[in-house]
Amino acid sequence: MLARNTIANYVGQGYTIVVAIIVTPMYLGVLGPEGFGLIGFFILFSSWLQLLTSGLNPTLARQVAVFQGGGGLASEEFRSILRSLEMTVLGLGLFTAGTVWLASDWIAVSWLNVAELPSYTVANAVAAMGLVAAMRWGVSLYSSGLAGMEQQVWLNGFNIVIATMRNFGGLFLVLQLPSIDAYFQFQVALSIIEVLIIGWVFYSRQPSGGRASDPGFRFSFTALRPVLPFTLATTYSALIWVFITQFDKLLVSKVLPLELFGYFSFAILLANGVRRVPDPITQALLPRLTRLVGAGNHIEARGIYNLSTQLLAVTSFAVAGVIVVFPRQTLMLLTGNEALTDFNVSFLPWFAAGNGVLALSTILYMLQVAHGRLRLHVINSTLSATVQVPFLAYLALYHGPLWLGIAWFVFRLLIFVVLSPIVHRAFAQGSYIRWLLGSVIGPLLGTSGALTLCWLADTTLLQSYDLSTRPTLLAILAGYALVTLAGAVLGARDIRRLSFALVTRRQ
After folding, report:
1. Please, where are the H alpha helices in 276-399?
2. The model's pTM
């Protein structure tokens, strides 16, 4: 089941990311630069909400994993926790939608630099974003519950359907009716359908005996009290991480014209794809690691921890590395737009590299969640916000995306170097140096060696190819990606052994 869930997560989330990256530039030719910029703002707004809604989700996912292990999903204790979380999410959803609606006129007139679109059109679009955000709270909660049940295969199949409708459905709609209003109305309707379906499936997959012990739709502070420290820690950390990772991008939307912000938002969308690389691994392995830690099975838990680190390192280094070394080729392949490419090519590598380090850092958070103790994560988040946010805000307002990207990478690297030995020694058994060399440095060296070979080939053998020929670009970048992934795998001790064993078995 573990391997099946991991594969399902990569297929589902990989499809979601790739489809968004492919479809988003197509809106530029249909809705114009400012319409594209507004969609770019919506994409970043959605990523901000994804981080924000992640605060409560580990609580339900962890409780599902714990109660399911003891056969207690139908118990009154679990149902009281679930109802209390649902009431909290309902209140947050209403607050989010109402706040965004009240601020929509001000955002349209005083924040976004709009030159051509009517202010009422922009305000309506922003209000629609608030409704989508309200639905997102419920979707995230029930998705985390299904992930805790290890129902990732169904969940990712459903996410593929929704991603197809959201991207290709939205594109088809604006091709038939070139209106930004129609696009956002469609997104609101789809979000309502999404939360209704995923909520129904979450309940249908629980034991039927749960209805008899259902405490009713009410909030119970008593039920949440045992998990309150964990819930408050994850919620606080999510709020802090919204500021750490997104506040500078929000300020960029104030400084740049809406057209250029659309270009910038696409680069951030691409870089955020690197940050989401660990999500499938985390969703598949975290419930298992939580149960092993809870059962005191430290030997098997250490094996899952080491394997998780190497999987994160291999995938995040390979994806980030290709973008870092070949940013112009990547942008031209995905967009075919020279203006967008020229604007983004200088700072995209820095954001991609920083997000590669951030993706690897997920293992530190994952280890703390499995133990149910987030004190170190809270301290790190607080210190990071205190130091990083003001500095990045200054760069965003006065020095532009390039220096912002450089600082973003430096902060991510410094935090990982300082925090990883502290977390490892507090929660993991075994030598930190051995873990670092075998699970992090090894894949990094393998990736670097492979990328060096690709760069030499690109600058000598292939220097004359036409960047505007997208089929050629696709073939070349696909080759670079495969070589880079192979180099990363060769550098990862456990994954290399598993790969060789799998190949030998098939022969």
Report:
1. 279-294, 298-325, 327-335, 338-344, 348-371, 375-398
2. 0.77
